Amino acid sequence: MEITKLRYELIKERKKYQRQVFSLLSVIFPEYGKTAIKNPFSITSTAILQKFPIAQDLAHAKPKQIEKIVRSIKGNNFNIEEIGQLIKTAQTSIYSGLARETRAISLRILLWVIFKTLFFYRRTGGKYPTTSLTPRTQRLLPRRKSLYHPRTQRQNHRSCPLLPGN
């Protein structure tokens, strides 16, 4: 019974984060739904949005950079024309660029939380892992140092993986 309640709470929390991502994407890249990668929660889309979270970042990206991200994900059939269309859509985006750093960090954090809960839940057949991560999942997670100082166990904001410059 307790596991069912936990699962319900996790699903409710995931849906809340997904709504936040959709509302944030409607501000920072309103044309995202018209691109080839409509679902922001797919592995490909998440990887692209982690690297280029704002439409202006994506507009300045080279097709080879995005192709490298897409080709690193197994089973992807994303072609160079779709990448070109994605960049073209980003270049004509109506986003003004206000608070771009803050919104980029917010999007990265939200996608990372959703990825952790959804991806691990699916990969473990409905059970959360109790052992170490597989090499594939370690590769997909952002590289980071410990968020906590080893002696004081207080959070160290300078080593947060999602903040710029870390």
Protein topology:
Blueprint lengths: L1 H27 L14 H9 L3 H5 L3 H9 L8 H12 L8 H24 L11 H6 L26
Helix pairs in contact: 1-6, 2-6
Computed over alpha carbons, the radius of gyration is 17 Å
Helix content: 55-70%
Major sheet: none
The dominant shape is: globular
Sequence stretches where pLDDT stays below 50 over 5 or more residues: 128-133, 144-149, 153-166
CATH architecture: Orthogonal Bundle
Distance separating the two termini = 42 Å
Approximately what portion of the residues adopt beta-strand conformation?
Answer: under 5%
Please state the structural category.
Answer: mainly alpha
CATH topology: Helix Hairpins
Order of helices and strands: HHHHHHH
Integer tally of domains:
1
Total strands: 0
By DSSP (H or I, 4+ residues per run), the number of helices equals 7
Task: Walk me through what this model shows.
With 166 residues, the chain is mainly alpha-helical. It has a single domain, classed as Orthogonal Bundle (Helix Hairpins). 55% of the residues lie in helices and 0% in strands.
